[in-house]
């Protein structure tokens, strides 16, 4: 039986307080980002506070499922970051409680939040989206004169293109007006120019009244009697003031409401699945009808009642031969006429096929939108659990609380999720990827990351230890640290100066012999480097002897000896012979030319550095031996006593 422990309550309280705070922050950020898309519909419309409150209320309900994952990521990261920073997480582990046991209460809470997210998307979200669409449409149709932009043509009014050079938002006056009014066809278009004007809607919101001042009216004289005339006269009218009534339906229509309700975002999962069956059935019927029409009419294939396709092909071939024989009997002028007529019919058939292709493409896009929305309800809910298993282990690993590092990491993770999710959605919408892959690619990318972080946090791994990566980078680039030895305050065993001096002399002799036998300044053989195993045992033995002497002399009380010890370089004992210790890695590196060239030059650099290091070691050995002899002369009795002991 599952028992609720005090630790579960403690962690749940820490997470709950942070979740509510971060949720409202994330909700506010998302609403501000979403608000920029519709800022033009809000500013200067004279909307009441009630309408604005409805706008923000519906927008908040629509964005709540998107705020849940980001709030979970940030709050879980801060929660376990605080526990790790205050060493409470260390105490929990010391008590024998694993990290997964500490996650137990929060996993239940996050699953509950995921269910709430799915409920919002399936029940509340569609209704909020539908109400938001209706409200937005009403806001767009309020004060249409404020919708007209400056400096570009506005085609929001039926059969009319309106250009305004400048407008006054306070008075509602329009300046520098140019109107292209189309009546029936472009040949009957009228061009109206005016210095200023006022645009207002009627009370019933069915028409727009445009009052123009100081302008001219140009209009073609449309007449059927002048169809064969080369030039068409036009009428020009100059006016000081003129009033024009334009058709404009500012109220809701059934088409608008139906268009909003037909959007996939305004439907629950049950409605989407039901409509998908209808859409697919309708698309199949349209496709089959188009195929039959193209086969029997556009492609001019004879209708055959028989099922045997070979018989149909034979009949088509016979028909083609008859047409060829008839065409050969025609005169040249008639042949040109027939070919021209056939070409026009083919072009017309091609355009019709293109239009039909666009129509079927729109039908397929509508189906994909419904499928994408159905998948999105599940993937967005699952992302709550996914972000928890990214944020909580990260907080346990980095052990940094507050709003500094956690916010940076959360933003980076959310940006990665958003890029993959948005890219997958766009690729699936244009049918470049399958719908399920496009919607789940973000899950496929983040799920392994969540599993990796959870595993590393449960094993107390130092995956974010900067020193580990820095040391690996320094090793790859050949960067090394210097020795830093200081005089010890408490010395248990004094160094054996005479023995150490003798050993340093032997090391110098070995270095001289090694330098004569190995020509380090020359380029090594690539065959020996990549395809033949072996370490430099001589350098390894020299380094071991030197480190033993350094360890013994580090107990010296003489400051000069300590300073000279810091001059000894830290030797890489195998980097000058081969790139890696594993034989197969060396072979693979040698076969890959660019990579092999890099490591070959790197190894040559290590050989030259080893040559310099050996020279430094010899000089330092001579300095330390000289200093030990000076100490022996100044303090011979004490040195003799140490030798006897």
Key features of this structure:
645 residues; alpha+beta; six-stranded antiparallel sheet; 18 helices; 6 strands; 10% strand; disordered C terminus
Describe, in plain words, how this protein is organized in 3D.
This protein has 645 residues and is of the alpha+beta class. Helix content is 64%, strand content 10%. The protein is built from 18 helices and 6 strands. It has helices at 6-35, 49-85, 88-94, 99-140, 254-261, 269-298, 309-328, 332-398, 405-429, 435-458, 466-477, 497-517, 526-531, 537-553, 559-565, 583-591, 593-634, 636-644; strands at 153-154, 160-167, 173-183, 185-201, 207-220, 234-247. Strands 1-2-3-4-5-6 form a 6-stranded antiparallel beta sheet, with no helix packed on it. α2 (49-85) crosses α9 (405-429) and α8 (332-398) packs parallel to α10 (435-458). The protein starts with 5 loop residues before the first helix and ends with a helix.
Order of strands in the sheet with most strands:
1-2-3-4-5-6
Tell me the series of helices and strands, N- to C-terminal.
HHHHEEEEEEHHHHHHHHHHHHHH
Low-confidence stretches: 223-230, 250-255, 299-316, 637-645
Report the sheet-strand fraction. 5-15%
Radius of gyration: 42 Å
Helix run count: 18
How many beta strands in the DSSP annotation? Answer: 6
Structural shape: elongated
Helix content bin: 55-70%
């Amino acid at each position: 039986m599952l028992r609720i422990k005090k630790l579960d309550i403690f962690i749940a309280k820490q997470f709950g307080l942070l979740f509510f705070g971060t949720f409202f922050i994330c909700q506010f950020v998302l609403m501000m980002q979403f608000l920029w898309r519709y800022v033009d519909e809000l500013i200067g419309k004279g909307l009441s506070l009630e309408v604005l409150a409805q706008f923000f209320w519906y927008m908040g309900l629509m964005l709540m499922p998107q705020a849940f994952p980001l709030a979970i990521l940030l709050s879980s990261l801060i929660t376990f970051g605080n526990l790790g920073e205050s060493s409470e997480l260390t105490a929990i582990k010391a008590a024998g409680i694993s990290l997964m046991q500490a996650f137990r209460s929060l996993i239940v809470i996050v699953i509950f939040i995921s269910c709430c997210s799915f409920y919002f998307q399936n029940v509340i979200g569609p209704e909020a989206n539908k109400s938001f669409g209706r409200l937005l449409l009403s806001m767009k149709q309020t004060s249409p004169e404020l919708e007209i932009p400056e400096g570009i043509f506005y085609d929001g009014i039926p059969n009319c293109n309106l250009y305004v050079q400048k407008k006054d938002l306070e008075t509602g006056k329009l300046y520098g007006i140019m109107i292209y009014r189309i009546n029936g066809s472009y040949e009957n278009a009228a061009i109206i120019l005016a210095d200023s004007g006022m645009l207002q809607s009627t009370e019933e919101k069915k028409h727009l009244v445009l009052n123009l001042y100081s302008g001219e009216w140009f209009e073609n004289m449309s007449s059927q009697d002048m169809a064969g005339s080369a030039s068409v006269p036009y009428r020009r009218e100059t006016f000081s003031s003129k009033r024009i009534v334009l058709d404009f339906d500012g109220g809701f229509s059934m088409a608008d409401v139906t268009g909003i309700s037909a959007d996939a975002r305004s439907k629950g999962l049950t409605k989407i699945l039901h409509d998908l069956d209808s859409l697919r059935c309708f698309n199949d019927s349209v496709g089959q009808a188009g195929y039959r029409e193209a086969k029997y009419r556009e492609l001019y294939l004879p209708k055959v009642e028989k099922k045997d396709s070979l018989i149909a092909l034979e009949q088509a071939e016979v028909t083609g031969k008859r047409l060829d024989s008839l065409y050969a009997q025609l005169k040249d002028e008639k042949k040109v006429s027939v070919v021209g007529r056939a070409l026009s019919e083919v072009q017309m058939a091609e355009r019709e096929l293109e239009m039909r292709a666009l129509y079927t493409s729109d039908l397929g896009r509508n189906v994909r939108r419904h499928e994408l929305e159905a998948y999105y309800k599940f993937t967005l809910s699952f992302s709550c659990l996914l972000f928890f298993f990214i944020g909580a282990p990260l907080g346990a690993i980095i052990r940094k609380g507050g709003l500094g590092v956690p916010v940076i990491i959360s933003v980076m993770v959310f940006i990665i999720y958003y890029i993959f999710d948005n890219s997958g959605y766009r690729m699936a919408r244009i049918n470049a990827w399958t719908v399920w892959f496009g919607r789940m690619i973000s899950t496929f990318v983040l799920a392994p990351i969540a599993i990796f972080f959870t595993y590393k946090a449960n094993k107390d791994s130092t995956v974010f230890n900067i020193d580990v990566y820095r040391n690996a980078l320094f090793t790859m680039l050949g960067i090394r640290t210097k020795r830093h030895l200081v005089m010890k305050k408490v010395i248990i065993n004094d160094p054996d100066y005479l023995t150490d001096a003798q050993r340093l002399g032997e090391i110098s002799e070995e270095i001289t012999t090694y330098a004569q036998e190995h020509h380090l300044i020359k380029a090594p053989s690539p065959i020996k480097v990549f395809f033949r195993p072996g370490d430099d045992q001589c350098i390894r033995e020299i380094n071991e002897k030197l480190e033993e002497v350094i360890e013994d002399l580090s107990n010296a009380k003489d400051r000069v000896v300590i300073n000279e010890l810091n001059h000894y370089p830290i030797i890489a004992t195998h980097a000058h012979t081969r790139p890696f210790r594993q034989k197969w890695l060396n072979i693979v590196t040698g076969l890959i030319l660019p990579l092999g060239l890099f490591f070959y030059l790197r190894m040559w650099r290590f050989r030259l550095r080893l040559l310099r290091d050996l020279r430094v070691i010899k000089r330092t050995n001579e300095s330390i031996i000289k200093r030990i002899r000076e100490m022996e002369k100044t303090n011979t009795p004490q040195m003799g006593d140490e030798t006897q002991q």
